[in-house]
Amino acid sequence: MNKVINRDEHGRFKKITPAIKNIGEAFATGFPFYINLNNKSIPDLFSRSSKFRVLNNRFELPSTLLKVTNAQNYGSGLFYLSTISSNGGVYNFYQYDDFSDFTFLTGKEFLKAKNEFDKLIYYNLENNLGHSVLTGTDHKYFFEDADGACIPATLFLNKINGVQNSGMAVHIKPNYRNCLQEHHNVIVGHMIDVYSFARTTFPEAKPSIKTVVNLPSTIAESFLSKKRDCSNVYGLVPKNNNPNFQCSESHYHFGKDLSESKIPSIVKTLDAVMGVACVSLLANFDDPKRREICLPGDYKIKPSRLEYRALSGAWMCHPMIYYLVSDMLRKTYTLAEKGLSNFWKASEGEVVDTIINTDVVQARKILARNSEVFNKMLISAYPFLRQSPFNKEQTFKSANVLFSIFMNGMETAIANPSDIVANWNLNYNGNVGAYGKMVVTHFEDLKFKRKIA
To answer: Which residue range forms the structural domain that includes residue 24?
Structure first.
């Protein structure tokens, strides 16, 4: 009997199965699969339940090679195929299961077709990263006095709606949303409330950009008794099981039910792209000491969501950096979910070493190596970067304005990252002050190297 090799979602070989004979069997093996038509014509197709109902009129395809990305089963052997041709065109049409004018590609032919379509996808990567996932964040950050000494959150904050104290830190926990701007408005509202609470007791209190603070003995014992509540995709464990310090953290949430098999790939891709990018972006603000307890590959699964937990809280210093990092985290998640992580060139070992050692030099080497992919992701996140009429060279030049922030550190774009009160306009009565501080509103300033207040 002819045999073919079954594949996982990335096209890797899994096990031997009987040869695929029809669309129904291909449908059962998963997507994508590749077919080669005997000719470029798709013939007229009439419904078998009604001879007068035309399902497809005859049409011509530009090539015989098709990638089938989905097939909807209507029963009675009828399928609706969603396909991409080798020239990038999208073609959707009906076919019955006994349609035999094509062959299913397997083995070396499958890999050859996959390689051809991977090149096509890469060329148009900025058009292939659309997302609709709910996202959100929770943030742990510190307050300090006029001398820079940390003020324990327990001294000024009791639990209020969406906010609580956590050791030395304030912990903001807004619900996640489809709209990043809505989420931003909730965050800044909480930040204004907490700032007001803190100043009631400590008039000179202000949010701190510090990513590590030492724990006084009065807090350390109860705080350290809490168990580490996350998993690690690499099986890493903290180097320091009894730290006398606490770290700021900003966890990113992706609200979608995921198959367990996809989680490792998504978390590793988030590390490879944004874990590494933030080593560079936050180079002058992240304390390397935090990597004794906050590790690459840290994540947590909650009902209907994945929490990515490897980043510090320093990227919350300014709304524009919040938007920039959030948008790129969403694009990185999409890159992984769509099985396109192979476009990012970095080995697992160098990614882990770069993050755990806060190796800024290596982080920037990885970013430089992948600058084209990163810029394509930026273009996908920010359509305003596209030149009209489309000019690829100028579009990438515009994207590079944002890429350079990740490459050279956020202080090259933000006038004073440490002044969180001014950056988020926390003295305003409401969130109007920080509302307009988005990437698009500041792009002209960034293009001409004017720092953002």
So the answer is: 3-123
Position 18 pLDDT exceeds 70? no
What is the pTM for the complete model shown?
0.84
In the chain, the amino acid numbered 144 is E
Backbone angles phi, psi at 56, to 5 degrees: -135, 140
Tokens of 377: 């992701």
- Do 277 and 340 lie in one domain? The reply is yes
Give yes or no for a contact between 47 and 105, defined as CB atoms under 8 angstroms apart: no
The pLDDT tens digits for 354-372 are 999 999 999 999 999 999 9
Domain boundary among 54, 89, 123: 123
Say how many residues make up the chain: 453
The percent of the chain in helix, strand and coil, each rounded to the nearest 5, is 40, 25, 35
Check whether 222 has a pLDDT greater than 60: no
Structure tokens that stand for 210 in this block? 């510090």
Write out pLDDT tens, residues 164-182: 888 899 999 887 777 888 8
Q: 337 by DSSP, 3-state: which?
A: helix
Report DSSP letters for 360-412, one per residue. HHHHHHHHHHTHHHHHHHHHHH-GGGS-SS--HHHHHHHHHHHHHHHHH-GGG
Domain edge (last residue) among 123, 158, 186: 123
